[in-house]
Structure formats: structure tokens, C-alpha cells
From TrEMBL:
One of its GO terms (molecular function) is ATP binding. It is found in: Cytoplasm. Residues 799-820 are annotated as: Disordered. The keyword Lipid metabolism applies. It comes from Patiria miniata. Residues 254-433 form the ATP-citrate synthase citrate-binding domain. One of its GO terms (cellular component) is cytosol. Its EC number is 2.3.3.8. This is ATP citrate synthase. Transmembrane segments: none annotated. It is an enzyme of class 2 (transferase). Residues 648-773 form the ATP-citrate synthase/succinyl-CoA ligase C-terminal domain.
Length: 820
């Protein structure tokens, strides 16, 4: 089972390090030289006299090399490198170039950082090319070409390749026979040892990409002339000492605003993710949004409506931000919002598709405490600048004006609260005054009315892997989740007709003692055992086949490794993020070898399973309020299976997809959110092929995104007939050019890496050409689902699922006030 390819989240977690840092690391770790690389950084803050005082070789060296150190490809072709010049020439060239504009791969940016190093006289035939990168979940790729330099060509085709297992160290004979066939015998042993050391360094320091070009190999020594490298920023806690002194390469484009840097530092080293990109301080639409997918859809929608300049910022938070972190984030946004007044005022959109903001404000729990503290402190300036609040909650329930939480009404600001059923198009129009918020934009009443009440029994001929794992008897062990998340899972169990809860045990890693905890169930309560050790829980509950892993920090990887080795565990749902890619790849490989399915990591909503028509259907990991309250679960008809199978990377957008399905078809059969990390335990194709083989799934729904190339595998499968069921597909992120800050992946030098193919627009076009039904916008997904569904009914290829009696919700399980 192959892991997924790069996504937007993956791109964010890989950080380009400066060439100076790369050379110093490699000299110390690979070449075992304690003297340090002769290489210095120069920027606008450099004191030239002090620089020469600390590096006397700058004036005595016979020749120098000077070039920008900003992850710019093909610097020689762009005229951005000086070779064999003296110090005065190098200094003058930098002074002329510093702050100047340059255009690389369609991105215009500013030159702001350079390096100076000694020039190495050598012959062209002494130049080689060497690269290591993460290839699959089980192997790294080592590429070597005996010809290096700027004209190396397409190394993917011309270089020799060696694929190395994650724990494997290739023997020198293997390296020589595979990579060094065209290298002089006098140099092979030295190169073999160097490559072995480089592989070890690549793993130990959690590099994701490491390219040396050119690498000058003489008869007696190896010289690294140019380094392009990325590291996995999620490994920072593990590599604190190993990365000592490391500097990341500055973006080609603008520097981070102080506020953007503050938010990045706020989340650094914590289990949460927080991002801020300032687009236009004069814009009228400001936002604080949980989940990157929803933020992208908002920007996509604004662009489609022709009001992209009104989007002031891109924001995203996920994980578990503390109240203090949310306070700082909100306060920063408010200060930015009022910096440039607008005569018509501005709108602050607050949205979370995972946890219901309104309920959290009422209960005064979680990060919303910090948000409300910031709003209360700044309410006078918000009034002065005519700021209104638009809040989009994570459920279908609306909030009448008389029931808005007092904490919000006491702000004295216009507050409008919408359900998650409100399309993003309507929300943007309300924010700009193009739609009257008072007339009501919430069309929740249109949701979930079955299009056809005909019933027909279906004989299940074959079940896919998930059907085998998740059935009416499935038992799970939940690790590291909050009480309300576990209660939400039990709520779902109940409306699906289970006689007993699916949760067999709860694990609180590092807890002080084992105990029992009570949860609401039917007319009473049920006690579930809580353990401090996953090993004990698995030993005591051998009937459990699934582990829902929400353990924080380093415990997440440790718990996953324990679970994957347990014989009776068949599936691990990984909520946890911030696991270094190398650890994820090790975990995925071991899971594959042991026959264990992994969904995730890096996703808040991993699996939405509505399994068969009989009582006992099961949807694992109803995390937070995805799927909504008990009333929402019933309204969306998630208590029985429909005909639509969903695969998405974005967990935060799962609720909108469920609504589209409920509104326009006979309902959801199964949905999987893969997670946003570079390495995931399963791929789009894994789950789509499973749904293709399942006769109960009639329609496939795919939500992709910009970045990576996994969607092209789906295009090939559609063209070949491997995927033959009707598919509605859409990739979010067509607005990505609004956020460009890098010239793209630097990839293999000269490899012809076409970043244009990774755009959402290119993928949507390719999917449409392959035969998928592709809507123009995210909001049109429901319309296209309805068209496909109606067409299948008309052709007699789909008979709507029968409607069983609607479950009644006991008073004991109605929405609870005050239970945290």
C-alpha cells in the first residue's frame, strides 16, 4: 500500500535550509571535519569590517565564489553567481545585487541573502551529481551521475538510481556496482564511504531532500561545491542538538511581516499548527479559521466572485491551541484589522468545522476562552472601526438572536451566527454586504429530504477491507482524546443502532492510575475503563481491533508502534500530527508488513463509516463535532448507509461534504479523510479501489487539493477503466497563487519538474478530461452530485437505499449543558 504524495501540508512541513548551514552540517557530520566550512553569510545587516575580522581568509584567498543563498534554481543561467573573483569584486557585486528584484519560475522576488566561499580550481570532468530524497514509505532514493554541474540534464532519466530501505545501509560493493559504474577505480572506495556517511546523515538529521551538485571528486578528496537541502520541521524536537546553528533559507519573496513571524513562533514546538499570511491590510474580509481546507475554499470562493482583493488574510489553526495561544492569535488579527480603516467597516469571520465555537463559548472551555478574552479587551476599537462578526458553527443548528451567548452580545458588535450548511459563497457575500444577513441565508430545511423513498433489499456480494474491519461488532481503543470526543463516538454508536458502545477502553498516556469513567448511553450511563498504558489496554481487550490514536507529542509515534505490533489490531486511525516523516514512513512500512491499515496521520477526522443497513453500523472516530450533534446525525441520515463513497485529504471540510451528500443523494456509505501530511498510511487510490470493488457504493466523491501529483494516478485509473463508477471530483486551492512565497520546489536540478501540473486548476482539468464530473467551485459539488445521482436512477443503475425508522434520541442523551 503506497503512501500519499505531497500535499499543501507537506510542503509547509519541509523547510529549505540555507546553503551555508547545509555545508557546515555536512562537513561536520559526513566529512568529519572539525574545522568548519569556509563559508559566510552576507545580508543587509552585515558589518563588512567585522566580517573580515572574523574571517581573515576573505582577503587572503586567491579566488572567491559569491552567489545568493535563497534556494534559487539555476543561478548560473540567471547570472546570479560570480566565480574566481577577489574580495573587493565580491563585495561590490553583492552591494549592487542586494535588494534588487529577480524573477524565477514566474515569481518575482528580492535578493536579500548571499554567501561567499573559496573558489576551487578544478576540471569539468571532476564534477559529479549526487542526490538523496524520500522516495516511498519504504525506501529512499540515491541518484548519482558522473557528470555534474549546471548542464547535468534530466537526472531522473540519466542518473543511476539506488533504492535503499529505511533501515538498510547498502554495502560498498552494491554502491559501486549500481551507482559508480562510470567512475575511475581510484575514486570508487572514497566515494562509496562518502555515500554511506551521507545516507546516515540524511536519516539522522531528518533530511527530506539533499542534493550536491556539483560534487568535485579528486583522487584524494571530495569537495561539496553546491548544496540544496530540505529538512522535516516536525523533527525539530528530536534534532535540537543535531541542528544546532541551522538557518533556514529566506524566501525569495517578501520577508515575513512581524505579525506573521509572531504567529509562527507562537506555535513552534507545540502540538498545534497556526498560520497567518497577510494579503491586503485594506481588505474587508478577515478570518480566523480552524482547518486549512476551509481557508482555501474561502479564498477560492472570493476569487470566483471577483472579490479576491477583499480577502485580507489567510489563517489556519489546528491541533490543540491553548487559550493563551488563541488570545495572541486573535489579538494580532484585531490589531491588523484596525490598522487600515474602511468607511464601510470590516468583517471578522470565525469558523470551525471541527469543534462548535458557540458551544465552547457558552461552556467557557478550550481555546475559545482566549478568543473571547481578546474580543472583550478590544471591543471598543472594534466598535470604532465598524467590525462585525460572522460566526460559522460546526453543526446544522442555527442560533436565534435571543439565544446568542451573552459573552458575544455584551461585545456590542453586530454578531451573525450561521450553521455549517450555509455555502461559503453566501458567507462571503454577507461579509461584503452583497447579501442581507437578516433575511436568512441558512437553507438547512433543504437538507436531508430523501429524493426517493423506494426501498429494495441489497445482497452484499463482497465487502472491502474497511467493511471487514468496521462492522457492528467492532471494538476500539481510544488513545489521548478528550472526554467529549469519546462521548461523540458513543452518540454515533447509539443512533446507528449498536447495542453496546464501540469503545472498549480509553488510554491516557502517562496517567497516574487506571480507573473507570462514565459516559451517557441510552437512558442511563455506561462505564468505560481508562488505562495509563496502551500495552495494558490491548492485553486486557483482545476483542479490540482498532486503535484511535490521538496521543500528544512523542507519545503518538510510540503508541502507534505498540499498536502495529499487536496481533489483534487491524487498523490504526492516526489523529496525531507533528510526527516526523521518517517515523511515519517506518510506521507505515511496519503496518504494511503486519497487514495493519493506517489512516492518517495529520487528520482530525479519519473515518466516516456508515456500514450496511442492519443495526450495528459503525463510524469510528467522531472527533469533536464533525457530523454534528445527535440531532445532526439523525438529520443527515448517518444512522444508515447511502450510496456515496468519499475520499478526501481535508478533515475540516468533511462536514460540508456530508451535507452535500445528504441534500442531493440517498446518503453517505463510507468516507475517509487521509490526512494532510506528506506521508500517509493509505492513498486516494487505495480507498477508491476498495470502493470500486464494493457493490453498495454507486458514486465516488473525491476532494483533492493543490500540491503533489496523486490525483493523476486517479486520472490514469479513470482512463483505463480501472475506476469505472461515476466520480465527482474537485481540487481546492485554485487561489494558491495568492499565497506564493517560494519559486516552487527546487526538485532535481534540471529535472524538468513542472510545478504547473501540481496546481489545483491543472488537476481539475485533467480529472475532467479523464471523465470525472468536475464542478466549477466547491459550492457546486452538491449540484453535480444531484445530477449524477438522478442520472443513475433514471438509468436503473441505482435504487435509493431504504429508509429505516428514524432513531429517537433519549432525553438522557440530548445536548448537555456544562458537561466538559
Amino acid at each position: 500500500m503506497q503512501s500519499g504524495t505531497q500535499s499543501r501540508s507537506a510542503v509547509c512541513s519541509e523547510k529549505v535550509i540555507s546553503e551555508v548551514s547545509g555545508k557546515r552540517l555536512l562537513r561536520r557530520r559526513v566529512q568529519k571535519r572539525a574545522d568548519g566550512a569556509k563559508c559566510v553569510t552576507v545580508d543587509g545587516r552585515t558589518d563588512w569590517d567585522e566580517l573580515c575580522k572574523q574571517n581573515t581568509w576573505l582577503r587572503t584567498q586567491s579566488g572567491l565564489v559569491v552567489k545568493p543563498d535563497q534556494s534559487i534554481k539555476r543561478r548560473k543561467h540567471l547570472g546570479l553567481i560570480q566565480l574566481n573573483v577577489d574580495f573587493d569584486t565580491a563585495k561590490l557585486w553583492i552591494q549592487e545585487k542586494l535588494g534588487s528584484k529577480v524573477k524565477v519560475d514566474g515569481v518575482e522576488g528580492t535578493l536579500k541573502q548571499f554567501l561567499i566561499e573559496p573558489y576551487l580550481p578544478h576540471q569539468e570532468n571532476e564534477e559529479s551529481y549526487l542526490c538523496i530524497y524520500c522516495h516511498t514509505e519504504s525506501h529512499d532514493a540515491v541518484l548519482f551521475h558522473s557528470k555534474g554541474g549546471v548542464d547535468v540534464g534530466n537526472v531522473d532519466e540519466e542518473a543511476d538510481h539506488l533504492y535503499v530501505g529505511l533501515e538498510e545501509m547498502p554495502q560498498q560493493q552494491t554502491i559501486q556496482e549500481t551507482l559508480l559504474k562510470n567512475v575511475q577505480n581510484t575514486k570508487t572506495q572514497m566515494l562509496c564511504s562518502f555515500i554511506q556517511s551521507l545516507i546516515k546523515c540524511f536519516r539522522d538529521l531528518h533530511f527530506t531532500y539533499l542534493e550536491l551538485n556539483p560534487l568535485v571528486v579528486t583522487d584524494s578528496e571530495i569537495h561539496i561545491l553546491d548544496v540544496a537541502a530540505k529538512v522535516d520541521s516536525k523533527a525539530a524536537p528530536l534534532c535540537k542538538e543535531l541542528w544546532d546553528g541551522i538557518q533556514f533559507a529566506p524566501s525569495l519573496c517578501r520577508d515575513l511581516h512581524p505579525e506573521e513571524l509572531r504567529i509562527a513562533q507562537l506555535a513552534a514546538g507545540t502540538p498545534c499548527s497556526m498560520n497567518l499570511t497577510i494579503l491586503n491590510k485594506a481588505g474587508r474580509i478577515w478570518s480566523l479559521i480552524a482547518g486549512g481546507g476551509t481557508s482555501l475554499v474561502m479564498s477560492d470562493t472570493a476569487a470566483e466572485l471577483g472579490v479576491r482583493d477583499e480577502v485580507a488574510c489567510y489563517t489556519q489553526f489546528s491541533g490543540r491551541p491553548s487559550a493563551d495561544q488563541m488570545y495572541e492569535f486573535t489579538k494580532t488579527l484585531i490589531d491588523l484589522m484596525v490598522e487600515v480603516p474602511h468607511p464601510e467597516g470590516k468583517t471578522f469571520i470565525l469558523s470551525s468545522n471541527v469543534a462548535d465555537m458557540i458551544m465552547m463559548i457558552k461552556l467557557k472551555v478550550g481555546p475559545m476562552q482566549g478568543l473571547m478574552r481578546a474580543l472583550q479587551e478590544c471591543k471598543e476599537k472594534l466598535k470604532t472601526h465598524k467590525i462585525s462578526l460572522l460566526m460559522r458553527r460546526a453543526t446544522l443548528a442555527t442560533v436565534p438572536k435571543g439565544q446568542i451567548p451573552s459573552a458575544l452580545t455584551e461585545l456590542g458588535l453586530p454578531v451573525h451566527i450561521f450553521s455549517i450548511a450555509v455555502p461559503m459563497t453566501h458567507l462571503i457575500q454577507c461579509a461584503l454586504g452583497l447579501r442581507d444577513v437578516e433575511t436568512g441565508v441558512d437553507d438547512t430545511d433543504k437538507i436531508c429530504q430523501p429524493m426517493n423513498q423506494q426501498a429494495e433489499s441489497h445482497e452484499v456480494i463482497a465487502k472491502n477491507n474497511l467493511d471487514e474491519i468496521f462492522n457492528g461488532d467492532t471494538k476500539v481503543i481510544v488513545v489521548g482524546l478528550m472526554t467529549q470526543a469519546v462521548q461523540a463516538m458513543l452518540d454515533f454508536d447509539f443512533v446507528c443502532g449498536r447495542k453496546t458502545p464501540s469503545v472498549a477502553a480509553i488510554v491516557n498516556p502517562g496517567g497516574s492510575e487506571d480507573k473507570e469513567e462514565s459516559f451517557l448511553w441510552a437512558e442511563g450511563q455506561v462505564n468505560i475503563q481508562v488505562y495509563s498504558s496502551l500495552e495494558t489496554a490491548m492485553s486486557n481487550h483482545t476483542d479490540a481491533t482498532v486503535v484511535v490514536n490521538g496521543a500528544p507529542g512523542r507519545d503518538a509515534y510510540h503508541c502507534a508502534m505498540l499498536a502495529v505490533k499487536c496481533r489483534h489490531i487491524r487498523c490504526i486511525l492516526m489523529i496525531a500530527g507533528h510526527i516526523p516523516d521518517r517515523q511515519t514512513r517506518t510506521l507505515v512500512q511496519m503496518a504494511h508488513n503486519n497487514g495493519v491499515l493506517i489512516v492518517g496521520p495529520c487528520t482530525p477526522v479519519h473515518l466516516m463509516q456508515v456500514n450496511f443497513i442492519k443495526p450495528g453500523s459503525f463510524r469510528c472516530n467522531k472527533f469533536g463535532t464533525i457530523g454534528g450533534s445527535l440531532d445532526d446525525l439523525v438529520s443527515l441520515r448517518l444512522y444508515r448507509p447511502g450510496s456515496v463513497g468519499v475520499v478526501t485529504r481535508s478533515g475540516g471540510l468533511s462536514m460540508e461534504l456530508i451535507i452535500y451528500i445528504a441534500r442531493n443523494t440517498d446518503g453517505l456509505y463510507q468516507g475517509v479523510s487521509l490526512g494532510g501530511g506528506k506521508c500517509t498510511g493509505s492513498s486516494f487510490m487505495d480507498h477508491l479501489m476498495s470502493m470500486q470493488a464494493n457493490p453498495d457504493v454507486k458514486i465516488l466523491l473525491l476532494l483533492g487539493e493543490f500540491g503533489g501529483s496523486e490525483e493523476y494516478d486517479i486520472c490514469e485509473a479513470l482512463c483505463s477503466g480501472k475506476l469505472s463508477k461515476p466520480m465527482v471530483a474537485f481540487c481546492i486551492g485554485e487561489c494558491a497563487d495568492m499565497f506564493k512565497s517560494e519559486p516552487g520546489y527546487f526538485g532535481h536540478s534540471g529535472a524538468g519538474n513542472d510545478v504547473a501540473l501540481e496546481t489545483a486548476a491543472a488537476k481539475n482539468q485533467a480529472l475532467a478530461e479523464a471523465g470525472a464530473v468536475v464542478p466549477k467551485t466547491f459550492d457546486e459539488i452538491g449540484e453535480k452530485l444531484r445530477e449524477v445521482y438522478a442520472s443513475l436512477i433514471a438509468k436503473g443503475q441505482l435504487v435509493p437505499k431504504p429508509e429505516p425508522p428514524v432513531p429517537s434520541i433519549p432525553a438522557n442523551m440530548k445536548p448537555r449543558k456544562g458537561k466538559k
